[in-house]
Amino acid sequence: MSETMTGTDRRSFLKTGAIAAAPLAALAPVAALADDGSKARLARIEDERAIEALERELLRRLNAPDTGRCAEMFACGKAPDLGAVSIRADLARAESEIAFADDAKSATLRRTVSAEREIHFTGNTTVEQMVRLQGHGSHRHVEDRTLVARLSKNKDGWRFETVELA
After folding, report:
1. 0.70 exceeded by the pTM?
2. DSSP codes, 52-116
3. Which of 38, 91, 106, 148 could pair with 101 in a Cys bridge, judged by C-beta atoms 3.0 to 4.6 Å apart?
4. Which UniProt keywords apply (predicted)?
């Protein structure tokens, strides 16, 4: 008799659970169909993360000895010459500023960076000739600049259109 009671109790428990869960199951599709702008916000967040990852990869490739690998990141297939020996993102100051166009197919990225530049002494003045003879043919200095990039989105994802140091 105890087996019958246990079986009945289990069945009734499962039936009660199914009856209680039915209204919740009916509400789930309605919540999924409701358009509260969350899909657009999610798409924007995904685009921001993709652009930030592309920016990190660009800085990594620009600082690599072989900058030729940067070309595949650009829509035109040609890497820019920024005139800098190295570029470091200044993470302590601010994050990247990303501004999307109304159609969400293009964006502008701005970030403060530290650009190390090298100036070669090519003049014929006495001072420049002396410096070159002493083995110092160039001067390196670091300056704060703003990296400005224009990006476009196609079927393969985000690509750089232009990148410049302002």
Report:
1. no
2. HHHHHHHHHHHTSS-GGGGGGGBTTS-------SEEEE-TTT---EEEE-TTSSEEEEEEEEEEE
3. 106
4. Signal
